From TrEMBL:
Keyword Zinc set for record: no
Organism this protein belongs to: Kosakonia oryzae
Domain of life: Bacteria
Keywords: Membrane, Transmembrane, Transmembrane helix
Transmembrane segment boundaries: 6-27, 39-56, 62-83, 104-126, 138-160
UniProt-recorded name of the protein: DUF1453 domain-containing protein
The keyword Nucleus is annotated on this UniProt entry: no
Length: 169
């Protein structure tokens, strides 16, 4: 199977999603003002994408979900540690907005996440019997969870750390 076949055989919505995600990652390189709820956009996108893949693509979705939960915990810990030493959120005075500091981590993990998800689905399309391989189901769920967990860990670190400092914790 040639690279051209892979690229042209990929649904258009996947490329639209990639453009959207890369645009979000490029925006994340610079400080930006936002409502607090927007912090959770990327983690929710990847949670939905990972969960729907586990449910719709695997023969053992329950085990895939268990594996995904383990991956969320692992990835969440990694994300928390990666974002721990970065710049913190700031509150924009006189508004209900926050200022999220720029970081290349978001763009890097968007690219890693997309490539990983693309590869998993690609392998399923090239070798459909992988759907019935228990180990592949576990790996699919685990990788989906780790990917999303990194985003959740980083987001939760940014969200909770200033609140703990305000309370003197």
């Amino acid at each position: 199977m040639s690279l051209l076949t892979i690229l042209t055989g990929t649904p258009v919505w996947v490329w639209i999603l990639l453009v959207f995600l890369i645009a979000r990652g490029i925006n994340a390189l610079n400080d930006r003002e936002m409502e607090v709820k927007r912090l959770f956009l990327l983690p929710l996108i990847f949670l939905f994408w990972g969960g729907s893949g586990v449910i719709n693509e695997l023969a053992f979705p329950h085990w895939g979900m268990v594996s995904m939960l383990a991956g969320l915990l692992i990835g969440g810990s990694v994300g928390w540690l990666l974002w721990r030493s970065g710049p913190r959120l700031r509150i924009k005075e006189g508004t209900d907005l926050i200022i999220r500091p720029g970081t290349p981590l978001t763009l890097i993990f968007i690219i890693v996440a997309f490539a990983t998800k693309f590869a998993l689905i690609f392998f399923l399309n090239v070798e459909p019997n992988l759907k019935y391989a228990f180990n592949f189901n576990l790996m699919f769920g685990l990788l989906s969870g780790i990917i999303d967990g990194v985003f959740w860990g980083g987001t939760l670190n940014l969200y909770f750390t200033p609140r703990q400092a305000e309370k003197g914790i």
